[in-house]
Amino acid sequence: MLGYSLKMVDREIPEWLLSACGCKIWRIYLEDCHQHAIVFYSEFREIGLIVRYVEDDRFITQVMSFCPFCGTKFPGGLRDEWFNRMRELFGVDFTWGEDEVPSEFQDETWWLPLNLAGKHPYDDV
User: Fold this and answer.
1) Distance CA 3, CA 43 (A)
2) What angle is formed at CA 16 by the lines to CA 15 and CA 18, rounded to 5 degrees?
3) Sequence-ordered list of residues with C-beta below 8 angstroms from that of 52, at least 6 positions apart, any chain
4) Parallel, antiparallel, or unpaired for β 4-5 and 38-41?
5) Which are the contacts of 61, defined by CB distance < 8 A and separation ≥ 6?
6) What gap in Å lies between CA 7 and CA 49, rounded to an integer?
7) Residues whose CB is less than 8 angstroms from the CB of residue 68 and which lie 6 or more positions away in sequence, other chains included
8) What's the rounded mean pLDDT across residues 94-115?
9) How far is CA 3 from its chain centroid?
10) Is residue 120 very low, low, confident or very high in pLDDT (cuts 50, 70, 90)?
11) Whether 51 contacts 60, CB under 8 Å
């Protein structure tokens, strides 16, 4: 599943998400608050806030670049890198649905071994 909130799926919280910020409140929030409005996109290494629900468990999100509790900068997202790799592997005009995305690109499996630091979007501001 591309992008999910912890309340939507029964999945263990990935270490990359727990370690996105070192503050205790962030960890407590993720581990104990199953009704929160935070969603994470493992395939893109993005953390977002659910802004509005639309239909069928779909929602609109705003990517969060900083911890809402202490202000620590989260690791930079890898969305552009993900799409670049898709283009390299499947051609410029890949247009397929979520069910057709190769399983190794549906979560952090593709980027964890690469040790991608990722440039943060606010580094140049």
Assistant:
1) 8
2) 60
3) 59, 60
4) antiparallel
5) 3, 39, 48, 49, 50, 51
6) 13
7) 49
8) 78
9) 6
10) very low
11) yes
**Domain count along the chain:** 1
pLDDT at 66 over 90: yes
Q: Which of 70-74, 87-91, 109-113 has the lowest mean pLDDT?
A: 87-91
pLDDT of residue 17: 84
Q: Which helix (H) or strand (E) holds 62?
A: strand 59-63
Q: What is the pTM of this model?
A: 0.74
The verdict on residue 99 lying in a domain is yes
Residue burial 57-72, b: 16+ Cβ < 10 Å; e: rest? eebebeebbebeeeee
Token pair, residue 3, equals: 């992008």
Residue 41 located in a structural domain: yes
In a domain, 29, yes or no: yes
Long-range (24+ apart) CB contacts under 8 A made by 82-86 are 82/43, 82/44, 82/110, 82/111, 85/110
